[in-house]
Amino acid sequence: MTEGIRILVVEDDNDINQLLCNIIKKNGYIPQPVYSGTEAMLYLEKKEWDMVLLDLMLPGMSGDEILTKIAEQSNVPVIIISAKLDQPTKIGMLRTGADDYITKPFDIEEVSARIDSHLRRYKRINKLANTKKLIYKDIEIDTEAKTVFVQGKALNLTAREFGILVLFLTSPEKVFTKKNLFESVWHEAYYGDENIMNVHISNIRNKLAAINPNEQYIETIWGMGYRLKT
């Protein structure tokens, strides 16, 4: 029994919601059923969740609006479970921030396996975020001492640059929008001043290149944002 793992189930169809909650219970987790987008936002604002299962067609507030809000404020894994079969919708949701997309009608064992898989990955990322040292390629960050070394050489970063780089290393596969980065590091609302983030990313790249010009660390995902280059 895996205690304490709480999953928010956002689905307006009572039978499907119950089925998903039963799958979650069988896996040893704690489900919380909600039946509208408005209700979901109340639960998301009040508590921290380990996962969200999210339908798209909801009363009160649509699933894609909820997904956008979650992606801006949290790294919690989100699995979309929807009757929408078209490829553009799937791609759009994954680009917005969903971790997975399952179409209805779904296979119970597949949903069960995917929930477990994403929770394992989320646990690994959180464990990495809570360690004192973060390592990526030849970058080593000590989050307690607030030092950064590249190829063993000290890298001098401003507080903002340090915060951005730590964010990248704690979620190495995530694509961060400029809004994500600004609000996570500055802890202020982002009003669309792209130049601020462009300058900081450019400064980080230049400082990394000064020590190791043969490696690329941060890549631009056009129309979306930035992530660590794999």
UniProtKB/TrEMBL annotation:
Keywords: DNA-binding, Phosphoprotein, Transcription, Transcription regulation, Two-component regulatory system. Its main location: cytoplasm. One of its GO terms (biological process) is regulation of DNA-templated transcription. Residues 131-230 bind DNA. The modification 4-aspartylphosphate is found at residue 55. It comes from the Bacteria. GO terms for molecular function: phosphorelay response regulator activity; transcription cis-regulatory region binding. The keyword Protein transport does not apply. Residues 131-230 form the OmpR/PhoB-type domain. Residues 6-119 form the Response regulatory domain. InterPro entries: CheY-like_superfamily, OmpR/PhoB-type_DNA-bd, Sig_transdc_resp-reg_receiver, WalR-like, WH-like_DNA-bd_sf. GO terms for cellular component: cytosol; protein-DNA complex. It is found in: Cytoplasm. This is XRE family transcriptional regulator. It comes from Lederbergia galactosidilytica.
